[in-house]
UniProtKB/TrEMBL annotation:
Origin species: Leucobacter chromiiresistens
Protein name: Aldehyde dehydrogenase
Keyword Protein biosynthesis among record annotations: no
Protein family according to the UniProt entry: Belongs to the aldehyde dehydrogenase family.
Keyword line: Oxidoreductase
Active site: E244
Highest taxon listed in the record's lineage: Bacteria
Keyword Oxidoreductase annotated: yes
InterPro entries: Ald_DH/histidinol_DH (IPR016161), Ald_DH_C (IPR016163), Ald_DH_CS_CYS (IPR016160), Ald_DH_CS_GLU (IPR029510), Ald_DH_N (IPR016162), Aldehyde_DH_dom (IPR015590), LUC3-like (IPR044086)
Domain Aldehyde dehydrogenase: residue ranges: 13-465
Molecular functions per Gene Ontology: oxidoreductase activity, acting on the aldehyde or oxo group of donors, NAD or NADP as acceptor
Length: 470
């Protein structure tokens, strides 16, 4: 078990270029993080390449057992990891936040270890016999984001290791300490060279990782523009890709709902992680007949959800992770206010405060093509759009280039399923939004990316299909 101080000491660089890391809630100095370059990346890729054959040669059951030991190690150090995550990313310890995220790392590592992937018999009749095997790809390059830095890293690491690959991961520059700590804990039990991390700039280290001919697979979670650059950079090597890109998820509330009954789930669908989630509810369309009641009930619930410094146990909403994101949310909300949209709650940040706190904000009576609606705000500001015609609102929900998640809210399940079938998204939830399960495949449609993670589909995504026929 690692304490917070011992964990931070273990990942604090003793030499080389570093940068100071500050708490986005308080501005306090947390520590120093390495700023590594291409030499460090090349060395990490070489270590991963050298370690991969022996790791792949282990029986699947042994890799499964090692992954369980890695999950045990994360669990044993969970409180120290959660505290570091809260200080660096800003999310509170409680609620669906830091402790929740570390617990998710444990759960997803165990799920990746335990998911069965037997040989598939495809044909076995008078015409012949064929079976499908899944082989390791080699070295997986993983690039993780700053909003869920530990858990999304695990989504990339755990299935890759289970299938016999080795991994080189590059964390987001603003949350590198969190991922360095996670990797350090896992490497207490993993064989040397199996899991490697390089903390460096995306424009140099990240770009070189995606271009390396020694990388067989790239997994990336982040913005659509960066995803497009990765597609171009990896093309020369025909590297396999899993891209979970931007989202601007729509939710449609049908007229038969009970507004008070859905308010809490609507809130967490939109404001989990203070809105900093790719598959959060980012634009809510509500039928005219229940519009005012839904807005009122949502505002009533939202007003009593505490926001503040993450280490204070009572808080469940925190700051935005970085000032650039604060400025982006502020810009979009101010544009909405200038257009005449109605501020129901929030919208009045203290721009001179030390922490990156943007208040929980609800914007009603907004034009469906306002920037706050059509751009991904990635923060605690939800536009609520009034509609009366179902065909028109489905068209509005589908007209953007994004298609990560969506939701339909109704007391009539059959009706909700009919509407859900018309939504263009990787996932459509009924009467909830954004919930993930380690056995249910997850990924985007349209420009929200391609490839699927989790469960059997996630294991297959980090493996090479091999048909043996005869």
């Amino acid at each position: 078990m690692n304490t917070y101080d011992s964990l931070l000491a273990a990942i604090t660089p003793s030499q080389g270029t570093t940068r100071e890391v500050f708490d986005p809630a308080t501005g306090a100095l947390i520590g120093t993080a390495p700023v590594e370059g291409l030499d460090a990346l090349d060395a990490a890729i070489d270590r991963a390449e050298a370690a991969q054959p022996a790791w792949a040669a282990l029986p699947d059951a042994e890799r499964q057992a090692i992954l369980h030991r890695a999950a045990d190690a994360i669990e044993a150090s969970s409180e120290a990891l959660a505290e570091l995550l809260s200080r660096e990313q800003g999310k509170p310890l409680n609620g669906p936040n830091a402790r929740f995220e570390v617990g998710g790392c444990v759960a997803w590592t165990r799920a990746a270890a335990d998911t069965p992937l037997p040989v598939e018999v495809i044909v076995d009749d008078e015409s012949g016999y064929a079976e499908m095997h899944y082989r390791p790809l080699g070295v997986v390059g993983a690039i993780s984001p700053w909003n869920w830095p530990m858990m999304i890293s695990i989504w990339q690491i755990a299935p890759s290791l289970r299938m016999g690959n080795t991994v080189v991961i590059k964390p987001a520059e603003t949350t590198s300490l969190s991922v360095l700590a996670l990797v350090a804990v896992m490497n207490q039990v993993l064989p040397e060279g199996v899991l490697n991390i390089v903390a460096g700039p995306g424009r140099t280290v990240g770009d070189a990782l995606t271009r390396s001919p020694k990388i067989s697979k790239i997994m990336f979670t982040g913005s659509t523009p960066v995803g497009k650059r990765i597609i171009e950079a990896s093309a020369a090597n025909v590297a396999r890709l899993t891209l979970e890109l931007g989202g601007n998820d729509a939710g449609i509330v049908l007229p038969d709902v009970d507004p008070a009954a859905i308010a809490e789930d609507l809130f967490w669908g939109a404001f989990i992680n203070t809105g900093q989630t790719c598959a959060a509810l980012k634009r809510l369309y509500v039928h005219d007949s229940v519009y005012d009641a839904v807005v009122d009930e949502l505002a009533k619930f939202a007003a009593q959800v505490p926001m503040g410094v993450g280490l204070d146990e009572q808080n469940v909403l925190g700051p935005l992770q970085n000032r650039a994101q604060f400025d982006e949310v502020d810009r979009l909300v101010e544009a909405a206010k200038a257009s005449g949209a109605r501020v129901v709650l929030g919208g009045d940040p203290d721009r001179e405060a030390v922490g990156n706190f943007y208040p929980t904000t609800l914007i009603a009576d907004i034009d469906p093509h306002n920037d706050l609606v059509v751009e991904e705000q990635f923060g605690p500001a939800l536009p609520i759009i009034r509609y009366s015609d179902l065909d028109e609102v489905v068209r509005l929900a589908n007209e953007l280039e994004f298609g990560l998640g969506s939701s339909v809210w109704s007391s009539d399940r059959a009706r909700a399923l009919e509407v859900a079938a018309r939504m263009q998204a990787g996932t459509t939830w009924i009467n909830s939004h954004g919930g993930l399960h380690p056995m249910i495949p997850f990924g985007g449609a349209k420009q929200s990316g391609y490839g699927r993670e989790f469960g059997v589909a996630g294991l297959k995504a980090v493996a090479e299909p091999h048909v043996i026929s005869g």
